[in-house]
Here is the input.
Amino acid sequence: MKFGPIHVIRDRTYSSLLRQIDATKPSNETQRLQEALDRARQELQLLGVDVESDDRFGPEIPKQLHLTPRLGGEGHEYVEPPTPAPSPLASFNVLDGWISQFEIDGEKVGGAVGLSTDERIEWLMNSIGGVAGKRLLELGPLEGAHTKMLCDADAASVVAVEGSRALWLHCLVIKEIFHLDQARFIYGDFNHYVADYDGPPFDAVLACGMLYHQFDPVTLIAKLSSLTDTVMVWTHVADDDYPPNGVPTEVSGYKGRRMDYGDARNEFRNYCGGTAQEAVWLYHDDLICCFTDNGFARIESRGVSPTPAGPAVLFAASR
Ligand SMILES: C[S@@+](CC[C@H](N)C(=O)[O-])C[C@H]1O[C@@H](n2cnc3c(N)ncnc32)[C@H](O)[C@@H]1O
Here is the structure.
């Protein structure tokens, strides 16, 4: 269905205006375009379109820009870029907003974070005697950099559950570029996946960088105990200063501090936190108790280290 011409946006349809905004942000034109969008919504209402209930006509400019394939062409028009010869780099460049750094054809590409050579993952894999031949579950793979490490270390299979639409698409690109044939990326909230899982147990679960983003990490840890004997963990833990503005809380008897992430999920282009607005950071001792109380009696830990974002602990928990 097309709406146009509409005089406030000249000869553009609403959707072409959205594409124009996508193509230009960030820029000092954003404010002007937002105003144009507001006026366009008013115009559409005058034309009898129910903009409030029709989700094609949202009130704000789209924030998840990294869902948008790179745009080509001059100015603000959407133009399909010249189609390159097929190559891993060409596929990589279909999406922007990369956080992790990857090496493709000898070139370092993507973001600044060296997750595809992450020594925490090396340490965790070593501490459980390697992952070769093992069936793994990964919670929150981000863009698949750790998944790639697990596959490169000969995991038999990796099921990776990612809750961000944009990040999940990045994972799919990585799967294709690096032939991660034993990996399967599932889009959705892993709390549901873990709660509903009734398949054969996993040999190990990778829980890196995601426990401190959960509304109820205690229930998640308890559920994990029913589907695996081994969990590899890196997570922030609470102390007097972290999380910033954390409110003391207790979850099923385990102490921590509750953090309110506000509207960050909608505000940051590269948001890679949890699916809920609030999350609980457990204190270190409470976190370890939560694992041991759920039957993970053996904890091999590298201890707590300070990081700019708060104290963090690296450990493998197993029966
Ligand atoms: C801080 S990042 C850590 C990414 C990666 N595992 C690492 O350690 O570098 C958290 C990741 O978990 C995902 N995530 C957080 N909570 C989730 C949930 N409940 N369900 C699915 N994915 C989730 C985020 O989208 C993001 O990819």
In short: Residues 115, 140-142, 146, 161-164, 167, 189-191, 208-210, 213, 272, 274-275 surround S-adenosylmethionine (CB under 6 Å). Confidence is low (pLDDT under 50) at residues 1-14, 23-29, 62-73. The chain has two domains: 7-62, 114-318.
